[in-house]
Amino acid sequence: MIGWIGLLLAALLPAPAEAQDAKIAEFAGTYQGSGVAEGRDNVYFTIVARDLDVTVKPKDGGFEVTWTTITQGTTRGQRVVRKTDTVSFVPGDKPNVFRAMTPVEPMAGAPYYWARIGGRTMTVYALTITASGAYELTSWARTLNPNGMDLVFRRLSDGEAVRTVRGKLVKVAP
């Protein structure tokens, strides 16, 4: 009987401090690492390695994220492809939910970005409506760890998984 009471109390009491959501300042810094992509959009369903860089900076009560991905031997041939994106976020109407500073029109093909912090993970989302009216939802979940962060990137097209990238990044600058 006492065991059940203990379980009930544990479920009702507030979570310990380490289970609370991280603050933006905890994510601030520059991270570098690598990841492996798997997906149906890779040539012959192969696995493709990627170099990853991420910088998070507090900005105007919110934050700015810049990320760069470098791939070699992709579906585009054997050339090096470098892609960099930067998005600034401001607080939304709900705690730990942020919206992109620059409004966009998703029906025009521009991605609609938002972000949230849950626990030790900052997830950035991008919703894009394609020319055919289908949607693509992309997410970058960046989870803090003692050495930097773990990354899980996912891209869905009309609800079907297209690509997943898992990576590890080390914090190289505050």
* CATH superfamily descriptor: Calycin beta-barrel core domain
CATH architecture: Beta Barrel
Q: Report mean pLDDT, rounded to a whole number.
A: 85
Would you identify the regions where 5 or more consecutive residues have pLDDT less than 50? 1-18
> Class, according to the CATH hierarchy?
Mainly Beta
**So what's the overall shape?**
globular
SSE-based structural type: mainly beta
Query: What is the strand content?
Result: over 45%
Q: How many domains?
A: 1
- End-to-end gap: 50 Å
Largest sheet, spatial ordering of strands: 1-2-3-4-5-6-7-8-9-10
Helix content: under 10%
DSSP helical segment count: 2
Classify the fold: give the CATH topology: Lipocalin
Oligomer: single chain
Q: Largest sheet at a glance? A: 10 strands, antiparallel, barrel
Radius of gyration: 19 Å
List keywords for this structure.
174 residues; mainly beta; Lipocalin; ten-stranded antiparallel beta barrel; 2 helices; 10 strands; 9% helix; globular; disordered N terminus
